[in-house]
Amino acid sequence: MTEGHAVNFNVLGPLAVQADGIAVNPGSARQRAVLSALLLTPGQPVTAEQLSEAVWPRNPPSDVMANLHSYVSNLRRILEPNRPPRGRDTVLRRESNGYLLAVNADCIDATLFERLLHDGRRLLRAGLHQKAGRALGSALALWRGTAYPEVSDYALGAQAAARFEELRLLALESLWEAKLSEARDFSVAAAELPALTLRFPTRERFSWLLMKALYWSGRRADAIDAYHRTRRTLAEEYGVDPGAELQELFGSILRGDPIAGCA
User: Fold this and answer.
1) What is the DSSP string of 6-59?
2) 22-24 and 16-19 as β-strands: parallel, antiparallel, unpaired?
3) Out of 33, 61, 150, 214, which could bridge 55 as a Cys pair, Cβ 3.0 to 4.6 Å?
4) What is the pLDDT of residues 135-170, one digit of tens each?
5) pTM of the full predicted structure?
6) Which value, to the nearest 10 degrees, does the dihedral of the CA atoms of residues 149, 154, 155, 161 take?
7) CB 106, CB 112: distance < 8 Å
8) Helix, coil or strand: residue 183
């Protein structure tokens, strides 16, 4: 980046750019797609063919290169507003094998999310539930919508969006594990977790968490019902039984065994 000019990129939702903490308009929808495609692999060259596919998944125009050059020039002015007219491009560079966005990965919310998720799960495994909850809550607070929506029709963009959605659900599950491990009154979790099991009925971990919260709240029959709902959904959707972990928890609840914490 230009010295003294910090730029941050938010891709966990509609693309947003801030320069020195002030929102910057990244331009038209296609220009935003160019920047989003470059942000999929920061620090790595992206070929003109890949950018074309990201911007025009179907029916590219005959003057693709002229359009791409225009979008790149506009983005350079946004990302390096203080660069001298004939100065060397240092942020969005033309390499022999494509265009390269040379930004610190920490400037991208997706990278920060992954680091916070990693830290949160490490703290969770260490039994530091309160610290884990803070890290995981901070990670989830970065989300504003589907990741990389500007390139949702581009194969690499769709793959990245699916990957980050899976990580978001993992963060949400881990956050509830931390909350449940810290809880003294499990009735709050028992009241809030059903919404997640309804929204993601085939995510066994949410059912596992709900069953524990209900059981610890003294609602053994409701915990058993929660298991059977998940079992029926898995059978109807995928033709499979619940996994070993959920079945083991169900057996413990049926027997009335004491059940340890989540982490």
Assistant:
1) -EEEE-BSS-EEEETTEEE---SHHHHHHHHHHHHSTTS-B-HHHHHHHH-SSS
2) antiparallel
3) 33
4) 999 999 999 999 999 999 999 999 999 999 999 999
5) 0.89
6) -10
7) yes
8) coil
